[in-house]
């Protein structure tokens, strides 16, 4: 019998942590304001971490903290004090890539398990066994591995394996990239990536200065470095049988709509498979849900062989839905939902509501009021609190989204 894999969710800030947990995460990974590789994410203060760990632990969910920069000398003096704070908070693991930081973690907080970051580029069983002997409890595998290679590592080394199964991919080798550093002075390996691989480029021939030739026949330029987004929702059985212990979702800088929607789909797929592996059948509605978040074209990455994601194609995000509101509470006596606005919506809009344990359900907004109880026609202000008539009970943390009229709804 297979071990049930952990579903590991990104949490760029405290709100996303709560959303991830409500929508089915077994564990979340977060970063502080230093030492992590997502400096542009909201990230956590120490007080936020305390609140987040308490919220998670009371619901049986683990919290892992990224300490995975490639540190320079200047980064090290504050590290011991930071690790002591994480130890006191009670975080469940540290995600580390640099051997020096790993050694300091072992000295300062030996009781906290260490997970080896994908940045460490573990691509073979010998490396995995090396890190096991150093005391690493889990390896976040390099993204360049096939399922067959992962299974061999699993069969030969007694260590937990974690792998990315969904989200944005980097064109560099397991995230080790210097492009941002060279072009903007901001290092991806210190958490400051400006994503120049996503910019538009054109080709210039040395004898024709000033003449720009697009590499693709596209008036918007070309996208020679870009990668598609990883999506393995169709392949849960293969991931489980390869021995992957933790299914990691990328996206600490993504919206709560992304986190909730993707988590819920993978949660349902994993649970359905584990309930009855022999009778498991993939459900197209899981992919339909994932298609509703902002994404690039999907790929299965290297799991089944050569990764085609860096081939030339338009990198434009596909956005078929707008996330317009978050349900804060439901007032049963009034049959109204208290909603925090995230994008403008108005009376007469047809929207979908999806919650941790419900939906998606389509409704029309017929009546709405402001905080003072005055009828309003629209909610135009960011994070405006409004009440919406809702005869059907909806859950707190439910998302409200609206289909774009011009959107194409095509499955890959």
TrEMBL record:
GO terms for biological process: proteolysis. Keywords: Hydrolase, Protease. It holds the Pfam family Peptidase_U32_C. The keyword Hydrolase applies. InterPro entries: Peptidase_U32 (IPR001539), Peptidase_U32_C (IPR032525), RNA/ubiquinone_mod_enzymes (IPR051454). GO terms for molecular function: peptidase activity. Residues 319-401 form the Peptidase family U32 C-terminal domain. Belongs to the peptidase U32 family. This is Peptidase U32.
């Amino acid at each position: 019998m297979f071990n049930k894999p952990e579903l590991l969710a990104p949490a760029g800030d405290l709100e996303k942590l709560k959303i991830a947990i409500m929508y089915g995460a077994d564990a979340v990974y977060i970063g502080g304001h230093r030492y992590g590789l997502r400096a542009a994410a909201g990230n956590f203060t120490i007080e936020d971490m305390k609140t987040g760990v308490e919220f998670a632990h009371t619901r049986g969910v683990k919290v892992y903290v990224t300490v995975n920069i490639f540190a320079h000398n200047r980064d090290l003096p504050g590290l011991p004090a930071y690790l002591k704070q994480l130890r006191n908070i009670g975080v469940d693991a540290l995600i580390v890539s640099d051997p020096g930081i790993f050694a300091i973690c072992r000295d300062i907080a030996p009781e906290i398990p260490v997970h080896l970051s994908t940045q460490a580029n573990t691509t073979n069983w010998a490396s995995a066994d090396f890190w096991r002997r150093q005391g690493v409890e889990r390896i976040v595998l390099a993204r360049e591995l096939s399922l067959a290679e992962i299974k061999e590592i699993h069969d030969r080394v007694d260590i937990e394996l974690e792998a990315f199964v969904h989200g944005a991919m980097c064109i560099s080798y397991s995230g080790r990239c210097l492009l941002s550093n060279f072009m903007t002075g901001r290092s991806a390996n210190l958490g400051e990536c400006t994503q120049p691989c996503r910019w538009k480029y054109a080709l210039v021939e040395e004898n024709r200065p000033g003449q720009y030739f697009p590499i693709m026949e596209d008036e918007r330029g070309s996208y020679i470095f870009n990668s598609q987004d990883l999506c393995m929702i169709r392949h849960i059985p293969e991931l489980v049988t390869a021995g992957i212990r933790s299914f990691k979702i990328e996206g600490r800088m993504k919206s709560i709509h992304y986190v909730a929607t993707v988590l819920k789909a993978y949660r349902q797929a994993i649970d359905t498979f584990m309930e009855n592996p022999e009778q498991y059948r993939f459900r197209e509605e899981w992919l339909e849900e994932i298609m509703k978040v902002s994404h690039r074209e999907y790929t299965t990455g290297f799991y089944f062989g050569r990764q085609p994601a860096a081939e030339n194609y338009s990198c434009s995000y596909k956005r078929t839905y707008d996330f317009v509101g978050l349900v804060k509470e439901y007032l049963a006596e009034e049959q109204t939902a208290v909603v925090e606005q995230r994008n403008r919506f108005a009376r007469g809009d047809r929207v979908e509501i999806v919650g941790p344990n419900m939906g998606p359900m389509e409704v029309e907004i017929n009546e709405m009021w402001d905080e003072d109880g005055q009828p309003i026609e629209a909610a135009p202000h960011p994070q405006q609190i409004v009440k919406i008539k809702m005869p059907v009970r909806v859950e707190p943390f439910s998302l409200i989204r609206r289909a774009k009229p011009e959107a194409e709804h095509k499955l890959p």
